[in-house]
Amino acid sequence: MWNVLLSFSGLVALIQLLFLPFFPESPPYLLLQKGDKAGCLKAMKQLWGEGNCHTEFDDMMKEKAVTKGTKIMNVLEVLKEPSVYPQLSIMLLLLLSLQLCGLKIFQTANLQESIIPYVSLGVAISELISIIFCSSIIDRFGRRILLWGGYLLMALILALLETSLLLSHQFFWMRYCSVTLVFLFIIAYGIGP
Description:
Blueprint: H1 2-19, H2 27-33, H3 37-48, H4 54-67, H5 75-80, H6 85-97, H7 103-108, H8 116-141, H9 143-167, H10 174-191
Helix pairs in contact: 1-9, 2-3, 6-8, 8-9, 8-10, 9-10
Membrane topology: Multi-pass membrane protein
Subcellular location: Membrane
InterPro entries: GLUT, MFS_dom, MFS_sugar_transport-like, MFS_trans_sf
């Protein structure tokens, strides 16, 4: 029943993809990252109604003043910072545990048993690549575009993955397409949702 479970995540992504354009951008993102005060107030009124949202706006302005002198670090600077080593260690352990995931998908694709551990290692590397890539582009594009694009890519990749798994018994090369699509799905998930 793994394919039903995989399809369920695609259904949830599709529902979110349909409703995401109707929601405003995050007010803290608009104010703190983009510096758009008017857009922030408009988004706050759209999210919380016409009530008094000036208290929350003032709190965000204070946060902006506090973080004004703070330098935004890139990925390499974060990796060199000793205070984040515990969090990075936990994240690395989670990524390494991904080696155990997806074995059933790869068995369904009729991959040789000796290749599956290497493919699982590739899944973990794909997750790591997506985290590094997402952290470097999220400030440039914003969460909304990454979520929308990520869900759209995930839906497309899931459809292609299901097709490649169905055809893997007829065409030998479709097995490798399935593996590639799993890698792409993980990267799309890491960059978007």
